[in-house]
Write a structure and sequence with these properties.
The chain is mostly helical and 263 residues long. It has a single domain, classed as ABC transporter involved in vitamin B12 uptake, BtuC (Orthogonal Bundle), CATH 1.10.3470. Helices cover 75% and strands 0% of the residues. It has 12 helices and no strands. It is globular.
C-alpha cells in the first residue's frame, strides 16, 4: 500500500505541478519582506503566461518568450509599485485591480492577434521548453520521470536556495527585511525605503511571470483563458503557511498543495 501511494509518478507530477507555485511564492516573498502585500501574483502570472506564449508564436523561440514574460512581469509589478509605494494606494485594492485587469486583457489581445479569445495557437513540440535529460527513459523509467524535467523546474529549486542566501546572508536581504519590519529605523540608518520596496516588488513580478511562462510554454504548449486557475492565490497562501521562510517551510507547503491537486 505504501508503495502504491508514494510511487515515482506521484513524485514526478508533484515536482511539475509545484514549480509555478514555488516561483510565484518566491516572488511574493520578496514583496512581502519589503513591506508590500502582493495580491497581484495571479495577474502577474497571467501576464507572463500570455506574453511567453504570444512571443514564442511569433519568434519560434521559447527562450525569447521567457525573456519577454519577465519583462511583462516587471512592467505589471512596476504598475503595482507605483500605485502602492509612490502614491500610497491601498495594496489589496491595487493588487485586486491588476488581477481583474489581466483576466480580460489577454482575451482581448488574443482576439485581436489570433481571432480567438479563448486560447493562443498551439505551439509545435520544438517550440516549447525542452526537457533536460539526465537519464535514459528506456533504461531508467523511474529516474527519468522524476529528474528529466523542464529547465524552469531546476531553476525554481536553485532560486529557492539563492533566495534563502540573499535574504539571510547578504546586505541586500538585510536591508530588505529591515525595510519590511521597521521602515522608520531603516530610514534612520540611511536605507532608502522606497528603493528597497521597488526592488522587492519588481523581483516579485519577474518571478511570478516566470511561473506563468512555465505554465504556457513548459507544462503546456499554449495559453488558455485564465490558465493560472488561482495559482497566484495558492502561492500566496503557501507563502503565509510557510511562515515567509523559503527553505524550511515555503517549498514544502507548495509541494503539499501540488500533491492535493494531483490527487
Amino acid at each position: 500500500m505504501f508503495r502504491n501511494i508514494f510511487n515515482y509518478t506521484l513524485i514526478a507530477s508533484t515536482i511539475r505541478l509545484s514549480t509555478p507555485l514555488i516561483l510565484a511564492a518566491l516572488g511574493g516573498l520578496y514583496a512581502e519582506r519589503s513591506g508590500v502585500i502582493n495580491i497581484a501574483l495571479e495577474g502577474m502570472m497571467l501576464a507572463g503566461a500570455f506574453t511567453a506564449a504570444v512571443v514564442t508564436v511569433f519568434t519560434h523561440n521559447p527562450w525569447i518568450g521567457i525573456m519577454a514574460a519577465v519583462c511583462a512581469g516587471l512592467l505589471v509589478a512596476g504598475l503595482h509599485a507605483v500605485a502602492t509605494i509612490s502614491y500610497r494606494a491601498d495594496q489589496v485594492v491595487s493588487g485586486t485591480a491588476i488581477n481583474i485587469l489581466f483576466l480580460g486583457v489577454p482575451a482581448l489581445l488574443s482576439g485581436a492577434l489570433f481571432e480567438s479569445t479563448g486560447a493562443t495557437p498551439q505551439l509545435p513540440r520544438d517550440q516549447v521548453l525542452p526537457d533536460v535529460m539526465f537519464f535514459d527513459p528506456e533504461k531508467s523509467p523511474a529516474l527519468s520521470s522524476i529528474f528529466n524535467q523542464k529547465p524552469l523546474v531546476y531553476a525554481a529549486f536553485i532560486l529557492t536556495i539563492l533566495t534563502a542566501f540573499i535574504l539571510y546572508r547578504s546586505r541586500f536581504g538585510l536591508r530588505l527585511r529591515a525595510v519590511g519590519e521597521n521602515p522608520e529605523a531603516a530610514d534612520t540608518a540611511g536605507v532608502s525605503v522606497t528603493r528597497m520596496r521597488y526592488s522587492g516588488v519588481l523581483i516579485s513580478g519577474a518571478l511570478a511571470a516566470l511561473g506563468g511562462a512555465y505554465l504556457s510554454i513548459g507544462q503546456n504548449s499554449l495559453f488558455t483563458r485564465n490558465m493560472t486557475a488561482g495559482r497566484g492565490f495558492i502561492a500566496l497562501a503557501a507563502l503565509i503557511f510557510g511562515k515567509w521562510d523559503p527553505l524550511e517551510h515555503c517549498w514544502p507547503a507548495c509541494f503539499s498543495v501540488s500533491q492535493r491537486q494531483f490527487r
